[in-house]
């Protein structure tokens, strides 16, 4: 089996400001993200041969994308894969280019969350179908359950563990101050994070990302074509996607101190890219920090930290902007907010800009290998993507 | 020989101090949590009554209440599902009168006598509302009682009965009324309760030739703390020695359920050979003579009235009570609220209401909700049903959410629990104090109402700390 490594390249990307964009609808966001990508790639909308459109809240077929951009009679597939929807949209476009059925593909993710009261359409089915007896899947509660068990398993005292989580919040907020497109761009203190009102014990206000509107887009082509378009294109090294099968609720062995969907997706991705020592070989990672606990567990699940040792790495500043392995250099979901299907492409946008040396104040010195990660859903039913990127 | 073969009861965990309603008022009244109603309480009492009894042997379930959440739609079938009674059982709803509890009891006795059924469960529950700040509100309590009627292993035989009916407007709730209406107290007591119950008891004594002194215990429905004692005295009973304590200051008047609950309390104390007189009230009265058998010694392990009364949490927040009962409004939900699908409710009825999981016949793994393909060995369609509602469990992990729905409780506790003997489930946790929630806490399952949408009361199971 031959992987995706070095078979496709990104030649253009766009990303809107993320936030409560009351004055824009989903098509406005798509137009803004895509035209930035077209300009970046130096192409016209008519050059797009196939497109993938990721959206959960603003669905109803690929025609939404076609009508926004006036893409006339080309194939467009709508992708819905919850929080991993953006990266999965990108993944499908990459596979089309790699298969040779098209030369230039567009991947777009967009959500107009804030037209829903509270920002999130809670009409989610599973595992009980339409009888609606499952709790209404408040995402915070799901991830809070992971935090509770992690604390219990490793014998952390609440205050001590809360300090570790708060350090992640503080780091991401610091990075966010250097991200012009982020929703939240201000520093916070550990005390602020620790003393903030609880959202879902043990997670507080600053342990949770916001829900925002936004869109991001990528132009994908073959490395051969990419070379003719620009020098600083970015190569896809790996694309992995895994889905849970209900194990968390069906199997008592499921331990709630790790997300197996992330563990397995990472294993697949590292194998595809030929990475054997992720902590040393990965230069930067944009991970799914929907909640601070998710980022903490992800350090371990991506093999950046040994099992149970992520808190020590947090204290050592390993994942800070000037640390050994910077994570969420753009401020992450914490500062951007989380328009579900747009987030994955927003993450790729950051890796792409860092590799091109266009990340402004937050620019890293060396970015040869970058990683993005999404995890969405509820315990046992997560869908997770891990993608790796490299320079030509 | 037909009679009572088992008894059970349910009193909600929460008690409202009457002082919170009216300064100087005495005692407490049992109150439903926000997620309880007559159906959930009847289910809990029925399950208590089924302790140690093979549920497969129960072939009838009668539900009595004046506070069913539905006007058109059986409540008995929901109670039967929650109690995991087999499908080919007689079910019926008895309603519209505080006497419905003994009406159901008399019908169950007749059904067993006639051979229509071998074992019929009678479960009565009520959660009535008095107009805020009136004595009625102070007097009414919430609770449920259950009796299993059968013709073998009888713990108390039914020796005789005598009924009267009485057409009077003493207490009533018209269609659409939230609160109980009443006429002047002295009229209703004199010509309603006292006259009618008195007639029934006198008639029964005359019919059987028994005298007040022949009874070990007399169990009388009572509208308040005093009336049953006044009546018992008038009828020639020794109040102190013979009258069953109505637990008025611990529980309140539980309406339709009260005669059954007080009988359960009497049976908890009874010994072989005791004769018990039971009389209900509600536009008439049913009076019965029961004789306790030596089988009474075999009844064990029930929480019953005593166990449930002892397990309590007193709240002093009257406002909280008014919110729980829907008397004070809360901010309505603005988020997208999903609809409930009737076909899905029907499809999932065994999983949702019986809390029926599956056990893989190939590898033995217990799974909930039911699956088609085994999570462990991947065998397809090789499952047998497995009841989880009666299993104890321990909390594996939890969260306490301060922003999610329902806003009636803060925080909302979600729990992932591991059942003793296998099986895991994610569910809400209710009837708990925040500080007691921890990994490893032993819990049991309780049938509750999740929410109401489009007139559909959606019931499911939640975890609760053990009611000990």
Please summarize what this structure is.
Chain A is 37% helix and 17% strand. Chain A contains 14 helices and eleven strands.
Keywords:
heterodimer; A: 392 residues; alpha/beta; Peroxisomal Thiolase, Chain A, domain 1; nine-stranded mixed sheet; two-stranded antiparallel sheet; 14 helices; 37% helix; globular; B: 468 residues; alpha+beta; OB fold (Dihydrolipoamide Acetyltransferase, E2P); 2 domains; five-stranded antiparallel sheet; 13 helices
What would you say the CATH architecture of the largest domain in chain B is?
3-Layer(aba) Sandwich
CATH fold label of the largest domain in chain B: Peroxisomal Thiolase, Chain A, domain 1
CATH class bucket of the largest domain in chain B: Alpha Beta
Count of distinct strands of chain B: 22
Give the helix/strand layout:
The complex is a heterodimer of chains A (392) and B (468).
Chain A: E1 9-15, H1 26-41, E2 50-54, H2 63-69, E3 76-79, H3 85-99, E4 105-112, H4 139-154, H5 158-176, H6 190-195, E5 198-201, E6 203-204, E7 213-221, H7 223-229, E8 234-243, H8 247-250, H9 260-273, H10 278-281, E9 284-286, H11 292-301, H12 310-315, H13 332-336, H14 340-355, E10 369-376, E11 383-390
Parallel strand pairs in A: 2-3, 2-4, 9-10
Antiparallel strand pairs in A: 1-7, 1-8, 4-7, 5-6, 8-11, 10-11
Chain B: E1 3-10, E2 14-17, H1 18-21, E3 28-31, H2 38-49, E4 60-65, H3 76-82, E5 90-95, H4 100-114, E6 119-126, H5 135-139, E7 143-150, E8 156-165, E9 171-172, E10 181-182, H6 185-208, E11 217-220, H7 227-234, H8 239-242, H9 258-269, E12 275-279, E13 284-292, H10 304-310, E14 313-315, H11 318-324, H12 342-347, H13 349-353, E15 356-360, E16 366-367, E17 383-387, E18 393-401, E19 412-419, E20 424-429, E21 442-453, E22 456-465
Parallel strand pairs in B: 2-14, 4-5, 4-6, 11-12
Antiparallel strand pairs in B: 1-7, 1-8, 2-3, 6-7, 8-13, 9-10, 12-13, 15-16, 15-17, 18-19, 18-21, 19-20, 21-22
């Amino acid at each position: 089996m031959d992987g995706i490594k070095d078979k496709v390249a990104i030649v253009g990307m766009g990303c809107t400001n993320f936030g409560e964009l009351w004055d824009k609808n989903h098509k406005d966001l798509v137009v803004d993200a895509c035209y930035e990508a077209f300009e970046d790639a130096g192409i016209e909308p008519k050059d797009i041969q196939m497109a993938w459109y990721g959206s959960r809240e603003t669905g109803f077929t690929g025609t939404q994308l076609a009508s926004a951009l006036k893409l006339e009679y080309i194939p467009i597939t709508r992708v819905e894969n919850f929080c991993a929807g953006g990266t999965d949209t990108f993944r499908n476009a990459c596979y089309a280019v790699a298969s040779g059925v098209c030369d230039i593909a567009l991947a777009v993710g967009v959500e107009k969350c804030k037209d829903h009261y509270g920002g999130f359409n809670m009409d989610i089915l599973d595992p009980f179908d339409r009888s609606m007896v499952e709790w209404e899947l408040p995402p915070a509660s799901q991830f809070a359950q992971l935090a509770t068990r992690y604390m219990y398993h490793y014998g952390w005292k609440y205050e001590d563990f809360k300090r570790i989580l708060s350090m992640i919040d503080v780091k991401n907020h610091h990075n966010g101050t250097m991200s012009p497109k982020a929703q939240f761009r201000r520093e916070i203190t550990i005390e602020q994070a620790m003393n903030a009102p609880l959202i879902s014990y043990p997670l507080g206000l600053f342990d949770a990302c916001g829900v925002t509107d936004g869109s991001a887009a990528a132009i994908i082509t073959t490395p051969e074509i990419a070379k003719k378009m620009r020098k600083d294109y970015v190569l896809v090294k790996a694309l992995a996607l895994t889905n849970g099968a209900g194990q968390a609720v069906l199997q008592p062995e499921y331990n709630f101190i790790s997300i197996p969907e992330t563990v397995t997706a990472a294993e697949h991705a590292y194998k595809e890219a030929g990475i054997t020592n992720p902590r040393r070989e990965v230069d930067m990672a944009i991970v799914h920090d929907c909640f601070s606990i998710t980022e903490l567990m992800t350090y371990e699940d991506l093999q950046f930290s040994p099992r149970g040792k992520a808190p020590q790495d947090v204290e050592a500043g390993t994942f800070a902007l000037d640390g050994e392995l910077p994570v969420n250099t753009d401020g992450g979901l914490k500062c951007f907010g989380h328009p579900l299907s747009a987030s994955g492409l927003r993450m790729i946008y950051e890796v792409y800009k860092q590799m091109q040396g266009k990340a402004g104040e937050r620019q890293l010195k060396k970015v040869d290998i970058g990683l993005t990660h999404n995890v969405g859903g509820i315990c046992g039913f997560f869908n997770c993507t891990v993608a790796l990127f490299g320079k030509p | 020989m037909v009679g009572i073969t088992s008894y059970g009861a349910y009193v909600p965990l929460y008690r409202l101090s009457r002082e919170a309603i009216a300064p100087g008022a005495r005692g407490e009244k049992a109150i439903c949590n926000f997620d309880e109603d007559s159906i959930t309480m009847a289910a809990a009492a029925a399950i208590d009554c089924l302790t140690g009894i093979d549920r497969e042997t129960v072939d009838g379930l009668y539900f009595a209440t004046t506070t069913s959440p539905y006007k058109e739609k059986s409540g008995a079938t929901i109670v039967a599902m929650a109690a995991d009674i087999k499908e080919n059982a007689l079910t019926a709803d008895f309603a519209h009168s505080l006497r419905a509890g003994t009406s159901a009891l008399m019908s169950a006795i007749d059904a067993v006598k006639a051979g229509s059924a071998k074992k019929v469960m009678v479960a009565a529950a009520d959660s009535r509302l008095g107009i805020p700040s009136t004595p009625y509100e102070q007097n009414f309590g919430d609770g449920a009682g259950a009796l299993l009627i059968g013709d073998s292993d009888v713990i108390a035989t039914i020796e005789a009965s005598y009924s009267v009916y009485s057409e009077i407007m003493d207490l009533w709730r018209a269609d659409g009324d939230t609160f109980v209406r009443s006429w002047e107290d002295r009229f209703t007591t004199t010509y309603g309760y006292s006259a009618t119950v008195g007639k029934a008891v006198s008639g029964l004594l005359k019919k059987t030739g028994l005298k007040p002194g022949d009874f070990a215990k007399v169990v009388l429905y009572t509208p308040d703390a005093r009336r049953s004692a006044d009546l018992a005295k008038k009828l020639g009973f020794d109040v102190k020695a013979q009258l069953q304590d109505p637990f008025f200051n611990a529980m309140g008047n539980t309406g339709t359920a009260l005669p059954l609950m007080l009988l359960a309390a009497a049976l908890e104390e009874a010994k072989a050979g005791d004769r018990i007189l039971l009389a209900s009230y509600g536009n008439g009265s049913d009076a019965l003579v029961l004789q306790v058998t030596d089988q009474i010694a075999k009844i064990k392990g029930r929480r019953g009235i005593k166990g449930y009364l002892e397990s309590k949490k007193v709240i002093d927040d009257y406002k909280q009570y008014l919110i729980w009962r829907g008397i004070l409004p809360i901010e309505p939900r603005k988020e997208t609220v999903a609809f409930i699908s009737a076909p899905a409710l029907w499809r999932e009825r065994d999983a949702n209401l019986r809390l029926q999981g599956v056990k893989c016949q190939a590898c033995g793994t217990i799974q909930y909700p039911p699956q088609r393909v085994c999570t462990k060995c991947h065998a397809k369609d090789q499952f047998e049903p497995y009841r989880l509602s009666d299993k104890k469990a321990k909390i594996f992990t939890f969260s306490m959410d301060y922003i999610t729905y329902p806003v009636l409780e803060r925080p909302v506790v979600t729990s992932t629990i591991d059942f003793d003997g296998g099986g895991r489930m994610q569910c809400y946790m209710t009837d708990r104090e925040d500080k007691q929630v921890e990994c490893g806490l032993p819990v049991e399952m309780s049938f509750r109402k999740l929410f109401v949408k489009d007139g559909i009361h959606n019931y499911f199971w939640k975890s609760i700390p053990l009611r000990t």
